[in-house]
């Protein structure tokens, strides 16, 4: 509750219980708390720390005594103590002392930070356990912020972190607020890889809270601690930042376009910052983790703490540097001879995955993948550990082992028919021509006959049932979606939640098995079509398989773009509804619509049906940390804004996504009638399997969403109990720990130890620094030896994935939800990779360019459906191209060129 405004003219002078930091005398942590004592040391040492004062632990003790709380809190639960403090006014004598110090500071806007006794100690950092209140101004607001920091000593997360230890006392730092242009952290030694003589700097636009929470992109720099030269630099495209939105309100906002693709710091600034970090290290005599900010070209240091976790031989950080994706030890010939690929593996394992995502992929590997292989008619499905592997946070398919097992099926008896579909340019040519599978070939003889007979029976049965089975999967998806919307997971007991997860994992199992034949059959008919075009049409048939396609506008992925357009037109017909969508912040559009009479009708008639059909889509679908459209419809509102303002029509989308083109019919007429009939049959089979694949895909990704719902309900409970700092930390859990916890096999401390969570976060941050590993490689790969700078010049080569040539302005897109409204019709979409959630942008793009991709990746397939020229697997496009560059995209030759910067 607010306190009375104070008359500053009658304030008492500060006593010894409120002290200026950096003044004479020893900075005693028992008086100032860990954080304030460190700041006082730094100020006294002449380091550039913003001026601050500290409300000592003695003042806190006086507050408890004077209010009578001291006798009430003993034996009282932490949450109750916290509420008592928040509800109890600070007595006038104590308030006067605090406000006198605030007056002496000059009454600026301030950051009010906790400084508990054990905070920032060498043993435990307590980072993030207690509250910080930013951008505070005015007497009443300052006193409220002080009580909030005091009360946070009994927050659920701080109580859980202490693990039974007494609360102790709390000091509070009041420090001048610096609205930083750039912020970040500096480690005086690499905290993950343990490389000596390396200062690691992470920098983001705006305030450092965005970086600490993991919600914004950051640049990474490594500086030699002797020469102060920058020895490593990774500049990311930065879309959002944490910054003041209004006086006293800090939140996410967009980074100015001119600052998105440039380094946060130049080399001179990095040398200056590293020099400051080394001064801090020298002063304390130990490696330090320093928070810093830059405002108007001047560096400020906000806090420092010892680096409490360092890599040790054999820990997870060391294992993160392994050279092989295998999860179990293998014979040397297998270890060094296996072909690994992450091309075209269902478009759900795309990109770097979080620890939770990786552990969920491992669950899939152990419990689902073998049955998926069986669903293809494979009699002997082999060993689960050999099917998939993991390298630097990415999921790989073991192509060698898969090819060996698929030798049981007639179409892939010759392993090269399967292998070459998963090989990228990294191992093309001679390496593949001379390649020998370390697993050999599947046995022939009686064993081969049994496997062939099994495959024939299974395939015949699948051909009969494929359409009806697809209908069953669609019906089940809608049933499960509606059921999930009715459930209130928050009211379930842990046992009930365990039963729900078990049920959802069963559905997850069945839908992945049901989807796999459609995916592989479409994949196989595409390969047959490619071979026939090459064999019968020679040079004229080059890339022809990407042009001689029938009307694919019925694909579920393409259909979603049309349905968003329809929702946009419905909003456009209702000016009040469109005004809400255009003018409200994205996070409050849904709530505002539902609270408005006309908006509620629009939501029920148009948004609900759309979300029922498409709502479980999301970015990187097997990565269950990413919200789906039904969880966060911000991206949909962005696309409604774009489609409504552009006046783009459904006819435009339909026209772009259908029909033969580029003279393909004329080329086919050169074939003999039997050959033409064969190709047309293959085309129709490919079209059918593609349609069924996309239809059943929605069932598959809905099953992932169901699992995600339960995991995040567990996450919310862990946040309430203080085990997790925030829901963002769900990303650093292990899926098997979640299952064990719900099954009653372990309590919160055992299942979710802070040490394991911090370790998982540390390794994930390390992997985020690394370059993108190759799509394919043989044996082992040392990513630290494979780092190459982007090539000079403004011309890039990749794979021509969708034919055609176009010139247009480039638009780098890193974050769909934040940037969809910026994308203009006809622009060239440039990004790292795409998945199904990006499809609505393809409907208005002039061309598509990606760093990663293959001929059957999402960006390639959907570009072809929309007749958009596309080049994928350029590796460096997002580094070499800037938003606004005039770019030529040639989807026939696979080249991208900046023709005007």
UniProtKB/TrEMBL annotation:
Gene Ontology molecular-function annotations: ATP binding; kinase activity
Annotated signal peptide: none
Pyruvate phosphate dikinase AMP/ATP-binding domain ranges (all copies): 31-312
Ranges for domain PEP-utilising enzyme mobile: 823-894
Spans traversing the lipid bilayer: none
Top-rank lineage group of the source organism: Bacteria
Protein name per Swiss-Prot or TrEMBL: PEP-utilizing enzyme
């Amino acid at each position: 509750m607010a306190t009375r405004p104070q008359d500053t003219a009658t304030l008492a002078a500060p006593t010894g219980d409120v002290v200026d930091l950096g003044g004479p005398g020893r900075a005693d942590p028992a008086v100032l708390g860990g954080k304030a004592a460190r700041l006082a040391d730094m100020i006294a040492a002449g380091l550039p720390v913003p001026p601050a004062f500290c409300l000592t632990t003695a003042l806190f003790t006086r507050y408890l005594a004077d209010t009578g709380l001291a006798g009430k809190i003993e034996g009282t639960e932490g949450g109750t103590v916290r509420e008592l403090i928040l509800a109890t006014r600070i007595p006038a004598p104590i308030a006067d002392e605090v406000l006198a110090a605030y007056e002496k500071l000059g009454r600026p806007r301030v950051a009010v930070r906790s400084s508990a006794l054990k905070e920032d100690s060498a043993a435990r950092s307590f980072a993030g356990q207690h509250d910080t209140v930013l951008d505070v101004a005015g007497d009443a607001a300052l006193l409220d912020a002080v009580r909030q920091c005091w009360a946070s000593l009994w927050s659920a997360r701080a109580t859980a972190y202490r693990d039974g230890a007494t609360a102790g006392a709390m000091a509070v730092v009041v420090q001048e607020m610096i609205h930083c242009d750039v912020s970040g952290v500096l480690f005086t030694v690499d905290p993950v890889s343990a490389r000596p003589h390396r200062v690691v700097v992470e920098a983001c636009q705006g305030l450092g809270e965005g970086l600490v929470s993991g919600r914004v992109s950051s640049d990474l720099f490594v500086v030699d601690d002797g020469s102060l030269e920058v020895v490593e630099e990774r500049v990311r495209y930065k879309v959002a930042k944490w910054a003041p939105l209004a006086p006293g309100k800090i939140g996410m906002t967009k980074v100015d376009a001119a600052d998105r693709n440039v380094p946060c710091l130049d080399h001179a600034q990095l040398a200056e910052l590293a020099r400051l970090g080394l001064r801090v290290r020298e002063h304390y005599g130990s490696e330090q983790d320093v928070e810093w900010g830059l405002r108007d070209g001047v560096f400020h240091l906000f806090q420092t703490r010892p680096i409490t976790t360092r890599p040790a031989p054999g820990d997870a950080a060391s294992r993160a540097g392994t050279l092989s994706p295998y999860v179990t030890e293998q014979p040397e010939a297998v270890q060094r001879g296996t072909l690994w690929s992450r091309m075209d593996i269902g478009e759900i394992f795309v990109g770097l995955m979080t620890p939770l995502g990786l552990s969920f992929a491992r669950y899939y590997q152990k419990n689902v993948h073998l049955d998926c292989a069986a669903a293809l008619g494979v009699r002997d499905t082999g060993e689960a550990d050999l099917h998939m592997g993991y390298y630097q946070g990415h999921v790989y398919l073991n192509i060698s082992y898969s090819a060996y097992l698929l030798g049981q099926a007639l179409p892939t008896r010759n392993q090269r028919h399967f292998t070459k579909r998963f090989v990228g340019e990294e191992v093309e040519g001679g390496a593949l021509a001379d390649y020998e599978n370390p697993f050999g070939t599947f046995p022939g003889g009686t064993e081969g006959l049994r496997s062939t007979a099994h495959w024939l029976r299974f395939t015949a049965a699948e051909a009969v049932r494929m359409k009806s089975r697809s209908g069953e999967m669609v019906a089940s998806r809608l049933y499960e979606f509606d059921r999930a919307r009715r459930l209130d997971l928050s009211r379930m007991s842990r046992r009930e939640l365990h039963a729900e997860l078990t049920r959802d994992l069963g559905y997850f199992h069945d839908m992945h098995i049901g989807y796999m034949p459609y995916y592989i059959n479409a994949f196989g008919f595409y390969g047959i079509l490619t071979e026939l075009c090459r064999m019968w049409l020679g040079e004229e048939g080059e890339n022809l398989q990407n042009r001689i396609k029938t009307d694919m506008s019925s694909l579920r992925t393409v259909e979603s773009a049309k349905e968003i357009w329809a929702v946009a037109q419905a909003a456009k017909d209702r000016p009040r509804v469109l005004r809400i969508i255009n003018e409200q912040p994205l996070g409050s559009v849904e709530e505002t619509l539902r609270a408005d009479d006309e908006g509620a009708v629009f939501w029920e008639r148009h948004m609900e049906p759309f979300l029922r059909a498409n709502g479980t889509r999301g970015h990187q679908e097997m990565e269950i940390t990413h919200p789906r459209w039904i969880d966060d419809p911000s991206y949909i509102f962005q696309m409604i804004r774009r489609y409504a303002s552009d006046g783009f029509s459904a006819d435009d989308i339909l026209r772009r996504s259908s029909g033969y083109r580029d003279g393909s019919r004329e080329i086919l007429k050169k074939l003999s009638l039997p050959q033409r009939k064969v190709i047309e049959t293959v085309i129709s089979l490919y079209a059918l399997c593609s349609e069924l694949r996309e239809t059943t895909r929605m069932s598959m990704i809905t099953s992932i969403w169901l699992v995600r719902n339960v995991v995040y309900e567990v996450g919310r409970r862990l946040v309430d109990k203080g085990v997790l700092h925030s829901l963002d930390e769900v990303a650093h859990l292990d899926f098997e720990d979640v299952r064990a916890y719900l099954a009653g096999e372990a309590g919160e401390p055992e299942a979710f130890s802070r040490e394991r969570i911090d370790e998982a976060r540390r390794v994930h941050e390390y992997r985020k620094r690394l370059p993108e590993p190759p799509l394919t490689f043989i044996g082992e790969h040392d990513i630290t030896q494979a780092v190459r700078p982007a090539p000079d010049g403004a011309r890039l080569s990749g794979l021509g994935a969708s034919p055609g040539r176009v010139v247009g302005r480039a638009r780098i897109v890193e974050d769909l939800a934040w940037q969809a409204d910026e994308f203009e019709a006809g622009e060239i979409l440039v990004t790292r990779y795409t998945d199904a959630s990006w499809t609505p942008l393809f409907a208005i793009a002039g061309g598509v360019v990606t760093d990663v991709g293959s001929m059957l990746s999402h960006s390639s397939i959907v570009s072809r459906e929309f007749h958009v020229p596309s080049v994928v697997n350029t590796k460096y496009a997002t580094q070499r191209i800037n938003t606004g560059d005039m770019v030529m995209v040639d989807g026939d030759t696979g080249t991208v060129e900046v023709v005007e910067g």
